Amino acid sequence: ARGLERLLIEIQSKSSIPKLMGIEGSGAKIYFAGFSKMMRGEFDFKGRKKRPASDPVNALLSFGYTLLFNEISSFLDGIGFDPYIGFFHRVDYGRPSLAADLIEEFRAPAIDRLTLMLVNNRIFTSKDFSPHPKSGSIYLKREEMRRYLEEYEIYISYEFDHPEKGEKSNLRKCFREQIYKLAQTIMEEKDYLPFHLERK
After folding, report:
1. What is the DSSP letter of 3?
2. Which site among 16, 78, 85, 168 is 20 to 30 Å from 2 CA-CA?
3. Domains located in the chain, CATH noted
């Protein structure tokens, strides 16, 4: 926690995107080191590895982030944004950079928490994964993907008290609401407030 607090202070003196990206990378290492300590069960998670996924936990994270990314991209497109023009992530051919920006505030409350629940409750075990025959990457077996999608749908549809509004909401509604908030931020030229869940 102290490492992350130090980085939050350091952010204030950084004005360029490359420097901010460097701080983001340092923060991710600290975060996932703590994330691994919250896990119970059979999986050995030594840190985030995107491509290729080197273990079942990374495979679950990557699959979940892909679903989340696609949802955010779809909402952006439906509301009228160009998802390929972002603020923080650089514009790159074929990559919806704005979706890459907005997914960041939902990784932890959506996919990371879901992954912990699936692992700690042993909803998925080592038998549900297999290595790719060529790359050796670890993947969730095709027949288990449907079960993951069911768990994902239940999780993001689960109702909770919205931290700002004080009314019932769910994560999918929050995805949409944050995009509307971004539109309002741009039109009214005011600061953007990211989504967060209150710690219980």
Report:
1. H
2. 16
3. 1-37 (no CATH), 47-188 (1.20.120.920)
pLDDT tens for 79-97 read: 899 888 887 766 665 678 8
Compute the distance between CA of residue 147 and CA of residue 3 in angstroms, rounded to an integer: 36
**Computed from CA positions of residues 29, 136, 44, 128, in that sequence, does the dihedral angle turn out positive or negative?**
positive
Q: Please tell me the distance from the alpha carbon of residue 83 to that of residue 72, in angstroms, as a whole number.
A: 9
Cα distances (angstroms) measured from residue 89 to each of 96, 97, 102 = 9, 6, 10
Helical pair 97-106 and 171-188, crossing angle rounded to 10 deg: 120
**Most confident range, picked from 21-25, 63-67, 139-143, 167-171:** 63-67
Pairing of strands 129-131, 138-140: antiparallel
